[in-house]
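Notebook p. 47: complex prediction with acetyl coenzyme *A.
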Amino acid sequence: MGTVILGTGSSLPKRIMTNKDLEGIVDTDDAWIYSRTGIKNRRIGGAGEQTHQLAAAASREALQMAGLSAEELDIIVVGTISSHMLMPSCACFVQKELGAVNAFAYDINAACSGFIYGMDMADKYIRSEHRKKILVIGAETLSSRLNWDDRNTCILFGDGAGAAVLGHSDDNGRGVIGSNHRSDGSLWKLLHMHAPPSYNPDLEVPDNSGSYIVMEGREVFKYAVKAMEDSVRGLLQQENISMDSIKLFIPHQANMRILTNLLDRLGFPEEKVFFNVSEYGNTSAASVPIALDEANRQGLFTEGDIILLCAFGGGFTWGASLIKW
Ligand code: ACO
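Predicted complex, structure tokens below:
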């Protein structure tokens, strides 16, 4: 028995913001952004494109591919740090949008690692309770959580959602092979976002600059490359799988320089890596499932192929997962 992905989907806001558009917002230019990050465009949510609405649209595609109705879902898990409300969860809003009346729903706050953490939990549920059908989503509208005066951060991120429906397969050889996830809360300051101001003055955070992303870019860069390298190497060793046997590597689309550094350190061939960061920027938890869906729909892998996923984000959180499709 294995946990397989029965369907994938993705959804992106209609509005495209180019690097040129950003030149009118902060002191930056297209050449700087592209050379430092590989990003050309990102999508920015508008009316009707809240996090849960993008998530629901991606989920409908995934359900359609899986041939399942929303009523057949047992659990909905959303990786997000940018839902439009703190409570209820984004997952509860997705449940409402889909009419998934038989599911229980909750969010995972693990920044860019939210989707792969969610997939890992879904795998464990499915292995212990075989018939479960679980919708795992990564969805963000980080445009609502950026300081648009801070050129260090606002150029990097974009909005979007990706989803996967997971279920069981009786074919023993197929499914999630394993994962290797880690966190390090001691490094939280390097990449964080405060909660809204507290109504209890005793519980106010002294340096609460606002509810937007704050980042030490250079430090994040170093940790991201090293952590993703370690988790990929650790996972391959743990599962006794060689790098050569991977058909496609779908890393978190953070930025192109992080990815090329990672590939160099791993000695992994670029031709076997999926990239879409130039078009969407860093969509945090949505980045891996959007890329997975696009690669799936482009037919870049088929049954029996081994896919490697990995991510790194605020927390810090990071990890890698292997799937035999
Ligand atoms: N446009 C023009 N100039 C800029 C911009 C901008 N948007 N942003 C910064 N600069 C300037 C800086 O002010 C600095 O100028 P100075 O030398 O006069 O002080 C100069 O460019 C160099 O700044 P650095 O921050 O040192 O630039 P760096 O080469 O490190 O690139 C970047 C910055 C792209 C943020 C890089 O550090 C990075 O990729 N970090 C990883 C961050 C990341 O991807 N975070 C996402 C969340 S975590 C994750 O998903 C993995």
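Notes: The longest helix spans residues 217-239. The two ends are 13 Å apart (CA to CA).
Next step: compare against the earlier run before touching the bench.
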